[in-house]
Design a protein that fits this description.
Largest sheet: 12 strands, parallel
Number of strands: 14
Helix content: 25-40%
CATH topology of the domain at 1-171: Leucine-rich repeat, LRR (right-handed beta-alpha superhelix)
Order of helices and strands: HHEEHEEHEHEHEHEHEHEHEHEHEHEH
Structural class: alpha/beta
Strand content: 5-15%
CATH architecture of the domain at 1-171: Alpha-Beta Horseshoe
Length: 391
Amino acid sequence: MLQIEPMDLLHCLYEIQEEEYAEKIIGDLQSIILLQPSYTKMDILAMSFCVKSSHSHLSVSLKCQHLIGFEEEEQASAFMTPVFTLNQSFKLHNLPVSRLHLLCQALRNPCCKIKDLKLIFCHLTASCGRDLSLVFQTNQYLTDLEFVKNTLEDSGMRLLCEGLKQPNCVLQTLRLYRCLISPASCGALAAVLSTSQWLTDLEFRETKLEASALKLLCEGLKDPNCKLQKLKLCASFLPESSEVVCNYLASVLICNPNLTELDLSENPLGDTGVKYLCEGLRHSNCKVEKLDLSTCYLTDASCMELSSFLQVSQTLKELFVFANTLGDIGVQHLCEGLQHAQGIIESLVLSQCSLSAACCESLAQVLSSTWSLTRLLLINNKIEDLGLKWL
């Protein structure tokens, strides 16, 4: 089987300059992953040529620490083929041409059908946000956008969000991993949530968010026009703000019946935070189907609150509470809720929860009485022979 580096392939196709041939080659690929430490202007030109020729639903990941020779004050037209001539609209807000300008021009091509774009550690600036914004004003194929270790600055995020609010934008998933997001940027994202008819999946991971930022985000989530279904805020709370944030999220659960997946894993919620959260989870408007509270510093006190939620929820299918010190008493509380549940829970993950054989009799009763439960994980617990016998 022929092995070739992705960048080498892109350069070959660019040198040939046969768009139909490039379209055929690129069309056979499912993804292009470019993870070099640095790229030159010629690399970006070759990449942009092939992106423009992508008539299939392609996934593109770009990681680079350095773009050699790119200075934002330079005019990009000196390095473009005619199809990449600078458009007047790129001079909006008097921002310089960004290092992503050529790539964004390619993404704006009507024939480009790339569906998934991941930008990793690309030193994005405000002008990059402007260029990406213009992509979403015309591109009707890009549905998944991910930033890793990036910051667009507040002005860049505002510009990007203006593009995400455009009627032609069909973005469904936005992921922000280890990014710097200020309250002002969260306010811009909140405006997108209350406007976009397509955005259904929003994920923050290892992105420390201030309480004021999350408050603004929750205001957008409570808007009647918000269509978001999946909200993931993994390892994104500051310790001192966890409880107040749980209050904000409880109000979202009461107002937003579209939200079906909530992931708060790796946040220091504690028992008090879960108590506040369950006030929203127990509300009749709450339609959450998947709840992840793994590694959230929970004890048996949280299980009492979750038990009361389990008894009233008619939608919950998956509950993840692994890596919490729930103990046998905590799981017994959960089992009491499960035995009186009205819902259709299918998956229960209790791995690494400081359990022994003492809770297995209660779990056995749940298994005997709950027809819907098909997945039970007890990894890294000391249930021993007696516990297994009960199960």
